[in-house]
Predict the 3D structure of the following.
Amino acid sequence: MKKTILTGIRPTGNLHLGHYFGAGQNWVKLQDDYDFYLEIADVQALTDNFNDPEKVRENVDEIVKDLLAIGIDPKKVHIFIQSRIPEIAELTIFYSNLVTVARLQRNPTVKSEILQKKELFGNEGESITYGFLGYPVSQAADITCFDGELVPVGEDQAPLIEQCREIVRKFNSIYGDVLKEPEGLYTETKRVKGLDGNEKMGKSLGNAIFLVDDEETISKKIMGAVTDPKKIKKDDPADPDICMVYYYHKLVNKEENLKTICEECKKGERGCVQCKKELIEAMNEFLKPIQEKRKYYDENPDEVKRILEEGHVAAKEKAEKVMKTVKKAMMIDY
Ligand code: TRP
């Protein structure tokens, strides 16, 4: 029997190249070999967007279409919406007794996110909600509600997987051997730098290329990309290894073009404007099949609805089964 994979994504914005080369491609690779549940984590997205429900609602549809566009196959992957599975919320309540507040405050992912919030909103502990502090508990419910055995995530999520494993062990030690202890699947994934050279590409950093960006947007963004600051004139030699334009050529251009680009740049035989224009062309070419697929789903919303419905039915069935055994073990199966 195939092992079960569970992973999730917060619907707070469209997918960008960072998502594509990171999680996205990895998930597409995994979908053939596992029973794959892919959660659109709208409830989790609301933990820090509770005052902006429209944003989360819109992005549920956007993210689903983006995922389908990059090649997530709905025949192989159960795509479902978190808020439609109340068993997850129920499990979260049960688990909340099995984890201390101190332990959550020590969770490195939570800790660094709290620090980020403090930088943004000032030093008010008050701005940290109960829901935010507890989201690792909810994420443990996300995983175990579907008997998730493997969880493909980035290394930044490792503390959340560890927290989940602790909750599972605690639960099983009290109520019997009911829950599966999941493992993180930290496959080597590429981290894509931003157009500005920042180590991370992100919507809030304003340095991202989104899969849905049109030609004009792409052109504007690439024209503003950071190049070797020592290159002033068109025929100055430069170092492609510190140039974001070359960095992106390497991601999306054909292997056979790279050597020429690199050599011409080093010799001062290639102006940045020309080089950027070629990148714009390569980027559009690269995004074309993704955007064509995406267009199909834009034009066929009923198909997207059907896919989500099928994913939901599969997820609901699994969640109900797990919930039954959980309630029995906790002696609340009235
Ligand atoms: N926290 C994850 C992120 O921000 C998203 C997520 C929600 C998730 N539920 C999950 C990941 C369950 C793995 C398993 O990327």
